Amino acid sequence: MRGLVQNALLVGDHTVGEASGRAWGFCYARYPYLPSAVIEAAVSFVLMELQLLPPLPLTAEINGVAFREVGDTALAQTIGYMIAFDERGKPHRAWHDGANSMAARHLVQHLRTRGFVVMSPEVDRRTHKGGASHPGPLERE
Questions:
Q1: Residue 72 near residue 140, CB atoms below 8 Å
Q2: Which pTM was predicted?
Q3: Same domain for 42 and 66
């Protein structure tokens, strides 16, 4: 299937969507008894392996609490906030806006380079008076 997608993209001059559709059709024709969810997972895996589709965020469950991988942007925003403000939300006078965001991005880059994965508990999104749900501090992205 990997070769089919690569050939469709390189030789056939197809888009990624068309190539994945061809791969899905090939799998269905070859293995018609497989559920469509299995075929979709196989096609997604090939696209992720070829770096045409971003990988799914990691998830884990620990003591009944669901955790999800935090994205780079959300992690840098959270670290930047932690650098700029204390635990009460009062600003630190030693840092200015440019330095804390730059330090946060640099720290996130080093963490990812060394293979660290930061996870946060999934927030139960509850609706407020206006009916809109508000994301937690690590959920914005």
A1: no
A2: 0.51
A3: no
Residues 41 and 67 in one domain: no
Q: Which amino acid is at 46?
A: V
SS3 of residue 22 by DSSP: helix
Domain identity same for 72 and 42: no
Tens-level pLDDT at each residue, the chain (141 residues): 777 777 777 777 778 888 888 888 888 888 889 888 888 888 888 888 888 777 777 888 888 888 988 888 888 888 888 888 877 878 777 666 677 778 888 888 898 888 888 888 887 655 444 444 445 555 544
Question: Is there a single domain that holds both residue 41 and residue 84?
Answer: no
Q: How many CB atoms lie within 10 A of CB 19?
A: 23
Q: In this structure, are 63 and 108 located in the same domain? A: yes
H/E element holding 69? strand 65-69
Owning domain of residue 89 = 59-121
